[in-house]
Amino acid sequence: MNLHEYQGKELLSRAGVRVQRGYVASTPEEAVEAAKKLAEETGTRYFVIKAQVHAGGRGKAGGVKLAKNLDEVYEKAKEILGMRLVTPQTGKEGKKVHQVLVAEDVYYPGPSEPEEYYMSVMLNREKASDMIMYSPEGGMNIEEVAERSPDKIFVEHIDPAHGLQDFQARRIAFNLGLKGQAFKEMVKFVKNLYKAYKDNDAKLVEINPVLKTSDDKILAVDSKVVIDDNALFRHPDIAAMRDIREENPIEVEAKEAGLNYVALDGNVGCMVNGAGLAMATMDLIKQSGGEPANFLDVGGTADAERVEKGFRIILKDPKVKAILVNIFGGIVRADRVAQGIVDAYNNMKGEINVPIIVRLQGTNADKAKELIEKSGIPVHFVTEFKEAADKVKEVLEAREG
Ligand code: GDP
Ligand code: MN
After folding, report:
1. Is 363 helix (H, G, I), strand (E, B) or coil?
2. What is the CB < 6 Å shell around ligand 1?
3. Which of 57, 173, 353, 397 has CB 3.0 to 4.6 Å from 186, enough for a Cys bridge?
């Protein structure tokens, strides 16, 4: 589950990580109240207004603006709230901004220049351990840094038996070129950042930029935190932070129906049982010249109700030009699935306006074929993978022609 910047900062703060402080607001009036409160608590005179959407790259897209007084806080909040922010991470339709974070301006002048670093904590699957990735080239797109100057990206692997060691935290501070007070602050920052990652069962904690202020404080200016969905049951307070306005509405509906659905960009909807077969089916669709419109694993019980729900969810996506059902009758018998398809089709008469290709294999596949053919529903029944691919291709070409 993705969190907003302000929610991520809340979790970081609880773990002792110093963050750029702020309050969230949904209206320009609330933004002004937030700024007043912030000024009282931190003594800040300047503010930064930041769009809260589940996407990075907000700064360049006009979603992060400085405000020098309360009138400007009102104006900038008004500009950002309600806008559709388009960044490289939102897709071209963009994301609507419902909330802004009113934060203290932390780039104030002082004895030294503020400096920006990059730091993230995530699991390295190859090494089967957590890692801290960091770079002195912060503030900008880290993929660009990786491409242009890979020597500027450092990694610290964390032994799961020993946890993050002090010398590792010190090595990070050293490689970032820090000295004195800033060095000590960075060591503390790294330790608490890793603690925040562990304590909250995060899959990713990414801070870009980490800031060294002009008076040598180290703090998180931004936060991207992703929590492991499978661990949410033990963090009810984090589960309550979910903002479904940020999620794909079809995915939300599928989740509620207990279906494993991921929306994709293509034109061929697919309904499959088992994640492995789903992946193979998506490859099959690509080979036939189509593009998968989704990943949908209906699981072990492909009965009429689930098949119908699956069809309905797939058809909500207007890009879908054909549906491929590819189900293996292992635990579930193919003839039962066939019956499910027939019943679902009859229940949805008139609502299905795209061709359906059904491939059923496994236990009672011949009965399944007979059942579908007898029912008279207009689906293309196939038994082989290759046949399925050819049929998808034929159907797509016919629709284009
Ligand atoms: P992102 O663009 O979505 O990654 O959003 P960030 O939270 O990283 O903010 C984008 C940029 O805004 C940062 O890289 C900073 O350069 C700038 N920024 C953020 N907070 C402040 C601030 O308090 N003062 C100033 N002057 N700039 C800020
Ligand atoms: Mn950022």
Report:
1. coil
2. 48, 50, 56-59, 64, 66, 105-107, 139, 208-209, 221-222
3. 173
